[in-house]
Structures are given as structure tokens and as C-alpha cells.
Amino acid sequence: MKILIVQSEEGKVKEKQVIEGKLENVLKEVVVKALNFWDPRRSDLVVVKHKHEVGVQLPLKKEQYELYSQFNLRRVGDKAVFEIPIYVVSYENEWVEDGIRDSKVFVVAPYIDDATASSIIELAESITSPEKVEVEEEEFEEE
């Protein structure tokens, strides 16, 4: 199976590659690679599995059906929808209020096709994108 690996830092893709292998084995190799970048004094090392939903227009070609059916393929209206597992390996992050902000990650997922890969690359960029902090000032007037 082809596996997509995306390294994203501060909202930009640093490296992307497609390799052949078993998803679990490639993921473990990426986690070991992340260990070399991780500074335990500054952040946590976190591996999280998500399901990434992808929708494509019907009708499907036979090859598409065979490929997508491995990933919980179903029909939703006029689209075919399937879910692919993606793993986010965060090696530089910080706690912000009630959540965590990832600034450097690897994203590992099965490579399905170029369109799905583009979607995963955009996801990797958005995960590490610096959050815009908006300060809201409220004025209280005493009467």
C-alpha cells in the first residue's frame, strides 16, 4: 500500500513523500523519526488517530470502487463518501487554554489519489497554522 507522509511546521509543508509499505510499520518509523526532533523539556510527544472523510462525485469507476470500498464506502446523496485513517504525530506543541496548539507535526495516511493527498496536505498545514489571536475589548459604561 502507498503511504503519504507530510511534515508540516508553522502552517507550511516542510516535506512530503509517498512510500510503499504497511501503514502500521510506516507510522512507527515516523514516530521514531519524530523522537529525533522532539524536545521533552518544551513539549509533549503525541500520536493521535483521526478519521478523515472524503466525498467524491458519483458514478465511480470500477477501480475507484475497489479502492474506496476498503475505507467504509457509502453513498450520501449524490456523492460517495469514505473515511481514511490519518495519524497526527505532534512533536512540538503547547497548551493554550483548554486545547493544544501543534506547531510541528507529521501526518501519516494511506495514499488514495492526488485529490485526497491534497486534502491531507491542507489539513497538515491547517493543524500547524499559527492561530490568530483576536483581542476583544469590551467597554463598560457606568450610568
What are the key terms here?
3 helices, 6 strands, 26% helix, 6-stranded antiparallel β-sheet, 143 residues, disordered C terminus, alpha+beta
Distance between the termini: 70 Å
Number of domains: 1
The helix-and-strand class reads alpha+beta
Mean pLDDT: 90
| Strand residue content | 35-45%
Low-confidence stretches: 132-143
Give the fraction of residues assigned to helices.
Answer: 25-40%
Radius of gyration: 19 Å
Give the strand tally: 6
Number of helices: 3
Shape: globular
Kindly describe this structure:
Helix content is 26%, strand content 43%. The protein is an alpha+beta fold and 143 residues long. The chain has one domain. The longest helix is centred in the N-terminal third of the chain and has 15 residues, at 23-37. The model is unreliable at 132-143 (pLDDT under 50).
Topology:
Blueprint: E1 2-9, E2 12-20, H1 23-37, E3 46-57, H2 62-68, E4 74-76, E5 79-96, E6 99-110, H3 114-128
Antiparallel strand pairs: 1-2, 1-6, 3-5, 4-5, 5-6
Brief summary of the model shown:
By secondary structure, the protein is α+β, with helices and mostly antiparallel strands. The chain contains 3 helices and 6 strands; from the N terminus they run ββαβαβββα.
